Amino acid sequence: MSHPLLRYLRISVTSRCNLACIYCRPGKSRACSFVAERGPCPPSADEGDDLLTAEEIACFVRLAVECGIEKVRVTGGEPLMRPDIVEIVRDLARLPGLADLGMTTNATLLAPLARSLRKAGLRRINIGLSAITPAVYERITCGGRVEDALAGLRAALDAGLSPVKVNVVLMRGVNDGDIAALAELTRDRSLEVRFVEFMPFQPPASLPKVPHSREPSGGCSDRIVPAAEVLARLRELGDPEPLPGRRGPASAQRFRIRGYQGAIGIIAPHTEPFCQACDRVRLTADGKLRACLIEGGEQDILPLIRAGLDRPTMERLLATSAAMKPDRHAGSFRGQMHRIGG
C-alpha cells in the first residue's frame, strides 16, 4: 500500500513534563497523589536528559525541510520545560523553506513565554486541556492547576498566536462531563476546541474502572466517547454547522455552533482512523525517528545525527519511515506517550 510523501515533522525537544496525565504516563500517574496542595508531579530522575541539542535539532530540521518537510511542530514531554525553548523556536523559524511552525504544550508554563515565542517566530499553538473543572483537571493531570493552563491560553490569544487549538482527550466517566463547558470556550473566542477520541492502548489499571463496564479488565475500550456521541452532546448547546473542508489528511471534522465565534473539531482516530492519509513523521528527544505515533516503525538515528547527517542519508531515512507506516493502527503501543511527542 502506497503512502503520501512525508510533509509534517513533529519533533520532541524533551521527554520531561511537569504533569503526569493518566492517558500519557499511566505508570507514573498511579504512583502520584491527586492532592492539590502537593502541586503537580515533578519530573522523575529516570526520565533522562534531553539528548538532542538545540544545534542538532536545527540541523536535522534544516535537512528535513530540504527533503520535502513543509510543516514542523515542536512537542515534548512539555517543550516549555527546556530553558532554551525560545532559542530553539527562533532557530527553526529562520530556516528557509519552512512553511509552518507550531507547538503543542499543556500551557501551564506558557503565560510568561507566549509573547517571546511569538516574537521568535512561533505561528500556531495547540494546547492540551483535559478538563475545565478544576477537580477533574487536577485528577487527570496528577495535581495540575487548570487556572495555570487557562492563563496560558489567554496569553496565547493575547500574543497573536493563530490558530490557537485546544485538544481534549475524552475519557468516558473521567472528563466527558466537561464537553459542554469546554465547547463554551468558543463562544466569544477565536479558537478551536478539538475533542479527541481516547486511544485504548495503555493498561486499563491506569484508569479508574468504568461503572457497569462490559470488560472484565476494567473497561479501557469503554472509555471511548465516539465522535457521533460528541456531536450529539454539542447539539444541546445549539446547531453545530459543518465548516467546509478539512485541514490536512488527519485533522478534525470541523463545526461551528450557531452564533459562536470559534470552532469545534472532532478527531476520531479509533472509530474513524485516518492512517491511509497520514503524512507525519516524529523525532523523539533521544533521537529516534518514528513512522507512527502508536505502532512504532522506529529508527535509532542519534548516532547518525551526531556523526553529521547529509541530504542523501536524510532522504533514505524519510523514505524508510514512509515505508514503515501501517495501513491501520492496532493499538499496540504500551509505553509512555511523553517519551514520543503527540
The CATH architecture can be given as Alpha-Beta Barrel
Task: Tell me the number of structural domains.
Answer: 1
The rounded Rg comes to 19 Å
Helix and strand pattern: EHHEHEHEHHEHEHEEEEEEHH
Anisotropy-based shape:
globular
Average of pLDDT: 83
Question: Which keywords apply here?
Answer:
12-stranded mixed sheet, 10 helices, 342 residues, single chain, alpha/beta, TIM Barrel
Write a compact overview of the structure shown.
With 342 residues, the protein is α/β, with parallel strands linked by helices.
Question: Can you give a write-up of this model?
Answer:
With 342 residues, the chain is an alpha/beta fold. It has one domain (8-339): Aldolase class I (TIM Barrel). Helices cover 26% and strands 18% of the residues. The chain has a 12-stranded mixed beta sheet. α4 links the parallel β3 and β4 (124-128). The longest helix has 14 residues, at 311-324.
